[in-house]
Amino acid sequence: MQAYSYAGPSVLADGRLGLSTSGGTALSGPQTHPRFFSGLLTHAAPAAAGLLAVADVALTRYHQPRPGWTRDPVVTCDGDRLRFESFSACGGVYARLDVLGLDGDVLDRGTTNVDVNGPLRESLARVGGKDPLHLGVGPDELTVTTLDGAVVEKKVPLPTRWLRGFAEVQVIAAGFDLRAELQGPQAVRFLRSLPRKASTAVWAAPSGRDLRLASGPGRGAVSLAGVGRVATLMPLLRFAKALRVYGPAAGAGHQACAWELELPGMRYTLAVSPEPWRGFSGEGAVLEHLATDEAAGDADVVGMLLNFEPTVEIGLLADRSGLTVERVRAALTQLGTAGRVGYDLHEAAHFHRELPYDRDQVAQLNPRLTAARALADSGAVRLDGDQAQVTTSGGVRQVAIEQGTCTCEWWFDHRGSRGPCKHVLAARIAARLTVDMPA
């Protein structure tokens, strides 16, 4: 269970939006109710709509919809912007609103959860016009008190797959490239042309300065399985200045992708998993980095150098830590499993945040890696050059270490599309241990 404790409910009244905060980490240290920002949002309507969109994703289960728990968005203040983030209840959709160019007082930097309650949602939906909105992130900005200022407490289950999803998204997104960029009118036209049936799968292929729907994968095309999963983009179209679409190199099947709307003074990003039934938590993109022996120790070193910067410079971290760039990347992946870093596609860079999770949970959150280490430690791996035999209760598995192939059912089902199987991981761990052993 994740417990949220707020000094009072978030409120919007008389042009002032006060977001109540619950716990968090700041530059000034751990805070019960941190206060990060007080100032103006010049573009009130898109900011209100964007915050509502992030909250909607946290509320929604896109795969097999059913009533569930409401999880509050995470906000990080880095001195340059506010990043509001959420994950869908089904784990297959990630949302982020970046509010840029803060006009006001940055009181501290750090990460916290913010209360988005029913009355606030109704108020946000009514924000319109061109008047600026005063925003306060922190309890001192609450302009209306209810229930005599009584503490607001929420307890919701925060499944491990939600945290694993945050970790997987930042690794997967780092492998994306910009596939298409549309100006406002073209973006509106394309998104409104998507099929109305939420479960429909489509391919979007670049066509000059536009996008067109295609029947299958092609050069530069991105897949979108379950068009209903980008529904939160639609209320923002009236503010859209541009749409950017990101994805990996085209593959045979559906793959993850990201959709970014450029709004006045802010950006709204959605990342969706390859299939509606596939949460990001099972994609296995983090496993290769986590399997290295030095990753945990390197993460401690790199973690001490993070300072809630707008962007994390990997080269600068390598210089300061004395680690190679590859080891810094692996350390950032390790930190990502504890929710401490994300990835910004527009900036093509990581960013620092702090989620309320313990790094020691990493092994529990990745059972495939735990099983692989157990196989390696038990002597179940027999190496033969770049091949290996892994003995399991289900029989002997033949592994090609470099290619990452295996004779197990997992590999035949996924063929590397969801990360390495436990046998490949065990063989690679054993191979590294053999190299590292003293002569």
Describe the structure using short key phrases.
single chain, about 450 residues, alpha+beta, DNA Polymerase III, Chain A, domain 2, Arc Repressor Mutant, subunit A, 4 domains, ten-stranded antiparallel beta sheet, five-stranded mixed beta sheet, 12 helices, globular, SWIM-type domain-containing protein, metal-binding
Can you walk through the features of this model?
- The chain is α+β, with helices and mostly antiparallel strands.
- It folds into 4 domains: 2-158, DNA Polymerase III, Chain A, domain 2 (Roll), CATH 3.10.150; 165-281, DNA Polymerase III, Chain A, domain 2 (Roll), CATH 3.10.150; 287-361, Winged helix-like DNA-binding domain superfamily/Winged helix DNA-binding domain (Arc Repressor Mutant, subunit A); 366-436, no CATH class.
- Helices cover 27% and strands 30% of the residues.
- The chain contains 12 helices and 26 strands.
- The protein has helices at 44-59, 118-125, 160-173, 184-192, 287-290, 295-305, 314-321, 325-337, 362-365, 367-377, 409-414, 422-436, and strands at 2-6, 11-13, 16-19, 21-26, 29-30, 37-41, 74-77, 81-87, 93-100, 103-106, 110-114, 133-137, 152-156, 177-183, 201-207, 210-214, 222-225, 242-247, 257-263, 266-272, 341-344, 349-352, 381-384, 387-392, 395-400, 405-406.
- It has a 10-stranded antiparallel sheet with strand order 5-4-11-7-8-9-20-19-18-14, sandwiched between helices. Strands 2-3-12-6-10 form a 5-stranded mixed sheet.
- α10 crosses α12.
